[in-house]
Amino acid sequence: MTSPTTITPTTIQTTARSLRRYPRGTVPKSGTSPQASTSWTAPSDAVAFPSMARYDSAAVCRRGHVFTAHAERAAEIATRCVKCGAAILTECPSCGNRIRGQPSNLHGAYRPPEFCDDCGTPFPWVTRQGHIYQLQNLLDEADLDSATRLAVHEELDALAEADLPEEEQRKRWERVKELAPAFWDSGQKILVNIVSETIQKSLGLP
Ligand SMILES: [Zn+2]
Ligand SMILES: [Zn+2]
Predict the structure, then answer these.
(1) What integer pLDDT is reported at residue 50 of this predicted model?
(2) What pTM did the predictor assign?
(3) What is the arithmetic mean of pLDDT over 40-52?
(4) Is there a single domain that holds both residue 109 and residue 135?
(5) Mean pLDDT computed over 9-19
(6) Quick one: which ligand is closest to 89's CA?
(7) Domain's final residue, options 105, 125, 145
(8) pLDDT bucket at 10, cuts 50 / 70 / 90
(9) Of 95, 125, 155, which one is at a domain's C-terminal end?
(10) Which among 34, 78, 178, 179 would be 20 to 30 A from 1, CA to CA?
(11) Which residues pair with 130 in a beta bridge?
């Protein structure tokens, strides 16, 4: 670390200003830059803090294997995953937004996001827990009294556990359907991803 210096509010302000980063190719227009000058460019030697850095884009295969968390810096992006052969995605299949990679100044362990940070659609590698969150989000918007909502919420929490015995899963899904039939119907597209085929049949899912 550097030797201790007295930090005044002015120092902090100046530092923050010199660290400001803008997405590549979007140099601020006149009047919006800190110096309000058309010739303003982002400082090339800026060392931003993680919280101030923008996110790079990621390239991730459909099963969630990470090709890169910094697609902007990759010389090329493969079309297929070398671990599983699946197609590699570079954008949200639903809205076309970039897949959030790592902050541009961070390297190291990276887990791809399960949901698009723009439209909220789950990526193909979303986990069982991610699907449960999706169902709970839907539940929050369903027209239910709070006691029923809470009961269904708790069933879903229990069902996030993938190792539950089949019979217990069936009972819990059945209870969800009984408690909130309209919610059950509206969640079918999500349910088919996490309800086993046997249980789907016994509960009348298409
Ligand atoms: Zn893969
Ligand atoms: Zn999206």
Answers:
(1) 52
(2) 0.67
(3) 50
(4) no
(5) 41
(6) 1
(7) 125
(8) very low
(9) 125
(10) 34
(11) none
- Residue 194's domain spans which residues? 128-203
Residue 138 — left, alpha, or beta (φ > 0 → left; ψ -120 to 50 → alpha)? alpha
The distance from CA 33 to its chain's CA centroid, rounded to whole angstroms, is 30
Best CA proximity match to 56, nearest among 79, 74, 36:
74
Q: Are 205 and 192 in contact (CB under 8 A)?
A: yes
User: What distance in angstroms lies between residue 108's CA and the mean position of ligand 1's atoms?
Assistant: 19
Q: For residue 53, what pLDDT is reported?
A: 73
Residues 67 and 116 occupy one common structural domain: yes
Number of domains in the chain: 2
State the distance from the centre of ligand 2 to the C-alpha of 78, rounded, in angstroms.
21
- Considering the domain architecture, whether residues 118 and 136 belong to the same structural domain is answered as no
Percentage of the chain exceeding pLDDT 90: 69
**Torsion angle defined by CA atoms of residues 157, 196, 64 and 124, in that order, rounded to the nearest 10 degrees:** -90
At 196, list the tokens.
């086993």
Give the distance (Å) from ligand 2 centre to CA of residue 96.
6
Residues with CB under 5 A from ligand 1 (ion): 61, 63, 65, 81, 83-84, 86
